[in-house]
Write a structure and sequence with these properties.
With 487 residues, the protein is of the alpha+beta class. Helices cover 30% and strands 33% of the residues. The strands form 4 sheets. The protein has a 15-stranded antiparallel β-sheet that branches. α1 crosses α12. The protein starts with a helix and ends in a 12-residue tail after the last helix.
Length: 487
């Protein structure tokens, strides 16, 4: 699950930097099928699958990641050979609570080895990733401690791991310091793993990078403005992040009592916001609630979705929701690959291509008339007044220019391209299908749909490796979304 939480979120966190941050009320993510609910305040980024949910709060002082995974007893037995019931689990937990020492327990579900996946080995299915909380290097070098903790009526067994990190410039080793807690509990014969993960650069890595950037003109320009070049992006997007930009976490600050106190406070809040209940298998299938279009988008059970700044609002009457959805195992393997590689030195496009399978980008919007966009209705009416035949003619004239663009051909060559536009006076729909050869080496198939009314719209972009659609249900997600009431 470490790859599910820290790796997935951190490898995709760059998405969040592209959008402004806005305050939001507390909200609750509920997984009825798995029997848990998580309360959040204002996630900078979040992901969800059929059995898990992970997020990073925008107002986090420590930039920590949190996640919850639900593992049914039968799945755990199949994956690990460990047979358990909630009754048995709670008996073992009660026995640990009566002990005074924090020695490593004998019970398999309280030992970190149970939640370890072989380093470098790809995940074969979603459960492999959900059970991955520690790697082999952590088992060898991290400092582990064990305790029980009761929050409200729920008692957890807690595995704490402090990993010292490692840095060796000559050998290309740059592993971050980590502070991790795994809270383990059980209800309704389901094992729940709640992970909280915080990381920071080692002091050695920080000094080495500072020396490399010493003469950087860009860094000097930023520092004259009082902003660290390394974290300028987040500082610009969120003025509250300026303090963190000036004082990025290092191994020394991670051990600072103030940082530890803040981290503990955040973790307490997560546990207080967790609730468990009897799973309801009669509820709707896995999917994503689109807060802009106020619709539920169904997804395959073995997929996940990631959202940066889950709902974006501005002062001009515009709301936007951007999400990326893909097979869970593929995303976990990509994140695992990213964690093990130095992208500046070791990145090989063919390695990423070999792991990639298919995914969909979804972007929805709604817009209402406001003081700053008084003419929005007039603009919409002008667009909708254009006859469909004129729109298709313009599109047909544009396509040869696109296909023969020499600058584009340097990076990607399009073939078997089809483009069609429709305008019925209420909805304008654009469909664009093409095969793409990237860098003259990598083949993809893309299927794009853009549909818009005078008030809202949706973009769906499906990208599959090879020349065929793999999962038709997600390739045509946009066709299932209703943009007009009653249609």
């Amino acid at each position: 699950m470490k790859k599910s939480a820290a790796a997935i979120i951190s490898s995709l966190l760059v998405l969040g930097c592209a959008y402004p941050v806005f305050a939001a009320p507390k909200n609750v993510y509920t997984d009825a099928d798995s029997g848990f609910a998580v309360q959040t305040v204002n996630p900078m980024i979040e992901y969800a699958s059929k059995s898990s949910y992970g997020f990073q709060e925008n107002n986090s002082t420590t930039d920590s990641y949190h996640s919850v995974a639900a593992i049914p007893a039968d799945v755990l037995a199949q994956k690990t050979g460990i047979v358990f019931t909630t009754k048995q689990f709670k008996e073992k937990l009660a026995a640990e609570m009566s002990k005074k020492s924090g020695a490593k327990p004998d019970y398999a579900l309280f030992r970190p080895e149970t939640y370890t996946h072989a380093t470098g080995q790809p995940y074969q299915n979603m459960e492999d990733s959900l059970l991955d909380c520690f790697d082999e290097d952590e088992l060898q070098h991290a400092k582990f401690s064990y305790e029980t903790k009761t929050v409200g009526k729920q008692t957890y067994f807690v595995i704490s791991a402090q990993y010292p990190g490692a840095f060796d410039k000559e050998k290309g080793i740059d592993q971050r310091v980590t502070d991790k807690k795994l809270y383990i509990t059980s209800e309704n014969n389901i094992l729940y793993l709640t992970e909280s993960y915080c990381s920071a650069e080692t002091e050695a890595a920080k000094k080495a990078k500072a020396a490399e950037n010493k003469n950087s003109t860009l860094k000097k320009d930023y520092e004259e403005k009082g902003i660290s070049a390394e974290t300028a992006g987040s500082a610009v997007q969120d003025p509250k992040a300026l303090q963190k930009a000036l004082l990025p976490l290092t191994d020394s600050s991670l051990n600072d009592p103030k940082i530890q106190k803040a981290l503990q406070k955040e973790r307490e809040a997560i546990l207080k916001g967790l609730t468990f209940f009897k799973p309801d298998k009669s509820k709707k299938n896995f999917g994503m609630n689109d807060p802009v279009l106020k619709q539920f988008v169904s997804l395959p059970d073995n997929w996940l979705y990631v959202r940066a700044a889950p709902e974006i609002k501005d002062q001009d009457g515009l709301k936007v929701n951007v999400a990326w959805t893909a097979p869970y195992t593929m995303v976990s393997n990509l994140a695992n690959f990213a964690f093990m590689k130095d992208f500046d030195k070791d990145l090989k496009p063919e390695e990423i291509y070999n792991i990639y399978d298919e995914s969909v980008i979804l972007a929805s919007y709604s817009i209402r008339k406001s003081k700053k966009n008084k003419n929005i209705s007039d603009i919409a009416e002008e667009i909708f007044s254009i006859p469909q035949s004129d729109m298709q003619k313009a599109l047909n004239e544009l396509m040869p220019k696109l296909l023969n663009n020499e600058d584009l051909k340097k990076y990607a060559v399009l073939s078997n391209t089809k483009a069609k536009i429709a305008n019925d006076g209420q909805v304008i729909k654009l469909a664009f299908d093409t095969n793409v050869k990237v860098m003259n080496r990598f083949d993809f198939l893309t299927h794009a749909n853009l549909a818009g009314t005078r008030n809202n719209g949706l973009l769906s972009l499906y990208i599959s490796k090879g020349d065929k659609t793999k999962t038709n249900a997600v390739a045509n997600l946009a066709d299932k979304v209703k943009l007009l009431p009653g249609k």
